What we know:
11 helices; globular; single chain; 0% strand; binds fe (ii) ion; Hypothetical protein af1432; mainly alpha
Amino acid sequence: MKKTSIEELKIVLKKRLSKDSYEHSLRTMDIAIDLADIHGVDTKKAAVAALLHDYARDLSGEELIASSRKAGHNINWVEERLPYLLHAPLGATQVETNLKIDDQDILSAIRKHTYGATQMNPLELTVFLADLIEPSRDGGRIGKVRDEANVDLYKAFKLAYEYQIGKLVAQGRYIHPVTMEVWNKIVDMEYIHGSGN
Ligand SMILES: [Fe+2]
Ligand SMILES: [Fe+2]
C-alpha cells in the first residue's frame, strides 16, 4: 500500500467531493475510528476505508455506469435504474487505481458499504455502520442501531438491515438483489444460532 497519510487523503477528497459528501466522509471516519477502538478493529484501516467510502459518490449516473462498464463490473437491472448504487464497488476500484491503495481489507470495506454482503468481517461492519450512524443521521431506528453498534457490530448490522429493508418497502423503492441475499443470510444465521422460530 502506498504510504499516504490521512491528511493527504483528506486533501484529495476535498477537491473531489461536494462539501456535504466531504463532511459526511469526515464524520463517518470519526465514528469508524470510535467503533474500531471499541471492537478491536484496526483503526488505521477503518479510518482510511471510512474516509474514502464515498470516493465515487458524487459521479453522475452516466459516469457511474460508463466507468463501471470500463472497469469490467457487471451492472444489474436495479443498478441501471439506480446507478448511485454503483458508487460502492466503483469507489473501491477507483481508490485502488487512482490512489494506489491496494490493501484488500480497505477496498473490501469500501466495496461493501452500501448494502453489505453475506459475509461481513468486523472492519467491513465498522465502515457500513459508521456510514449509517454518523451524527447527522437520525430518525427512525438509527438511535437503536447507534446504541447497538457500540456493543455488538453484527447485531447492529442486523438491526440496520431490518430498518433499511422496512424503509425501502414502505417507500415503494427497489431492493437490490444483494440486499435480499444478505437479508436471507441474516435470517438463516438466526435460525442456525437458535433465535429464529
Ligand atoms: Fe455511500
Ligand atoms: Fe456514505
